[in-house]
Amino acid sequence: MDNILLVFLNDLDNVNEFNKIIDKFAENKYAMYLLDNIKEDEYFSMDDLPQLVEFYKNQHDNVNKVVVLSNSRDLIFSWYRCYNSVVDDFIYFIDEDDKNYFHSKNRHFDFFHNLSEFNEVKEETINGRIYLNINFTNYNRIIDFLIQDNNFIYFNSLNKYDFIKCETDKKSISKKYIFNEYEYNFEIDSIKDIETINVSKTNKKELKISNCFLQEILECIYIIPYLTVYFYKSKQQIFTDLLLLIYKGLKKDKKQYQEEIFEYLFSYMNNHDADFKEKIYISSLLVMIHGENEKLTEFMMKTLLEDEEYIEYHYEIVANLMFYHTNENLKKHDSYEIDRRKIIDKLAKNNKTKLCLDNGRIGENDIKRIAIVTDQLLSMYHSPTRWTINFVKSIKNKYSDVEISIIVEDNLYCKRVEKLMPYFYTSTESIDCKLMHKAELLNYDVDIYYSDNNTSRSEKLSKTIKRIEDFRPNVIFYNTPISLSVMSLIDYYPVVYMSYNDFNFTIPSHIYLERNKLAVIKENEKCNLIDMNNVYEYNPITSQLNPAVSKNEDIKSKYKRPEFGISDKDFVMVTVGNRLDGEISNEFIDMVVEFMKDKDEVKWILVGNCQLPYLKNKYYSVFLKKVIKINYEYDLFALYEICDIYLNPIRTTGGGSINRAMYKGLPIVISSNHSDSINYVGFENTCGYELSDLEKEMYKMYTNKDYREIKGMIMQERFNMYLSKRDEYMEQLWLYFNKAIFNFRNKVEKKEG
């Protein structure tokens, strides 16, 4: 069967792009017929289309479809309406300008203008779409029209065009339009089915944001890359908010289109002279649909390294990359740690604070003052906060004469970057929880300094450094891998890093205390940034796990299973985490659902502020019947009492909630892959590296109550063993502090020598 292309040109400008399109039709063996300079052709009339189509169809024995292409905007748009059923497909070639066919002096100009503006188009029968050669060079010539009254639903990108398939089976309809009390008839021979449409004059059209708009955008994904750029350039918050909704919709329901949109916009950022702000703006949206692509991280890092104009935003962007890695599974490229060190070093050096090395201070042998630098201090239900506070308590319980100053940098308070990054994370200000911290440390003589978030990044850093300088610590002990104050002070103080749940290759420290030294060695092979002789494996359990210790952790009376829709006979699994959306993979969900689906008595409690769209969308009935979702649980100890096992996804974090489960004697189902919990649980108590190994262990726990009880007792014994070593852990810490002082002195002496 033959395919026919009829081309109607009006003063063509963009010849090269036009020829490329024609070549594609030629490759698909189209019979092509050209009518050039139609505006100057006195024998041509817009209502000739049905006769021309019939004429060229008669030149062929068997026709599959007829396609009409024109660079004349008002002509092709009018044809699309009044002769919709005459032609199979319409193509509008976006030229250097609209190349309109109808002259303003034509007595019927107003009618055709309003027709081509799609006034009342929703009132008539329209099949198929107009295909556009839309790209980032010409989109601005058509985008305003597309978004008005959701006109984009009548269009598609020519890149999506199927040259062979005839997609629509159009019913032949003659059209009659009534405009200014005149009738305009577009009859098709022998077709008596006539549709009447009243057309009004053009009014000022605006973008109407509604649920309908959002839903239709997600069905017309071709326009999303152009809307992204267009809305960015508009600089209006309402459009940024709309883009967030669009990308959240893509993330939730349109996974099949994510890679396509990602690649198209990624190419745009690399090839269309996007500036720093535009690159970061678009990148933050692409994080939501990145498909675990490491090149986005590399691109953002490269953008930061090359920029010197917007340095005031750099730190918040780096902080948000940490959020993207943990919450969105954004992959790190091979040189990520090297790049991050360069950025943090640059930002630290950008600070103008003058520091003086005090050799007298270096000579002190006793550890009298410790500055503990942390990202943030929030409520005691915030695991890192609880970890920091209780670590301070453990130090003071062992070494009561030591002065401690907690320096809260509020590194994750990122409000400055709000207008630059549509999709960004910011914490609350730590100082908002000041009274809670004061109450928690009431019986401990501990100073807390909250960084000033109301100043510039540089001034905030200067004030923080001065506070540390005034305290004159013998050692700086920190747990944030992106501390600008610590990076600024590494040449002036002994520095000890202790991992909470992340490696630190960013700040060169005198001693590193890591959860898993083998994992650090493996990661360091990629970047070779730290001296492994200064890395020690250190896994303390502090008093944080004793529920009687924390004044703000009121233990409720026991929960009862019926309160959660659980019976006494049910087998209850629990998973807890702050970042479950990023930590629970689709494959893990598939495995758990496969385990649960034929077992009516199996329930899964998920604790954490997560959405898990894959679970909800693919396994909606399972989600409704078997999953209990809790956004936040203030009393994990009470919750664990009604659970049978703790189910840990394959992740590197989760230690806080797992340690608490161990305290309550809950069996832990955990893989043998690296995580911050393996040293507590014991490698011998892990169940293998594959999801199938986890499923086997779950089944064994489910079918064998005695085995489950033994595993629970082992977990409780291991917890008690670690807890009994609290004094020993503090003594070890003091040894590491002294090692740091020794390494620091050697470094200073080498410089002076």
Break the fold down into its secondary structure elements and pairings.
Elements: E1 2-8, H1 15-27, E2 31-35, H2 49-57, E3 63-70, H3 73-82, E4 89-92, H4 109-116, E5 130-132, H5 143-147, E6 155-157, E7 174-179, E8 182-186, E9 194-198, H6 211-217, H7 224-234, H8 237-253, H9 255-271, H10 276-286, H11 294-306, H12 314-327, H13 336-350, H14 359-362, E10 369-374, H15 383-398, E11 403-408, H16 434-440, E12 446-450, H17 457-471, E13 475-478, H18 484-489, E14 495-498, E15 511-514, H19 517-527, E16 535-537, E17 571-576, H20 580-583, H21 586-596, E18 602-607, H22 613-618, H23 620-626, E19 627-630, H24 636-640, E20 645-647, H25 655-663, E21 668-669, H26 678-681, H27 691-703, H28 705-723, H29 726-752
Parallel strand pairs: 1-2, 1-3, 3-4, 4-5, 5-6, 7-9, 10-11, 10-13, 11-12, 13-14, 14-15, 15-16, 17-18, 17-20, 18-19, 20-21
Antiparallel strand pairs: 7-8
Helix pairs in contact: 3-4, 7-8, 9-10, 10-11, 11-13, 21-27, 25-28
Descriptive overview:
- The protein has 753 residues and is α/β, with parallel strands linked by helices.
- The strands form 4 sheets. It has a 7-stranded parallel beta sheet with strand order 12-11-10-13-14-15-16, with helices on both faces. It has a 6-stranded parallel beta sheet with strand order 2-1-3-4-5-6. The protein has a 5-stranded parallel beta sheet with strand order 19-18-17-20-21, with helices on both faces.
- The chain is elongated.
- The model is unreliable at 543-555 (pLDDT under 50).
- This is Glycosyltransferase family 4 protein.
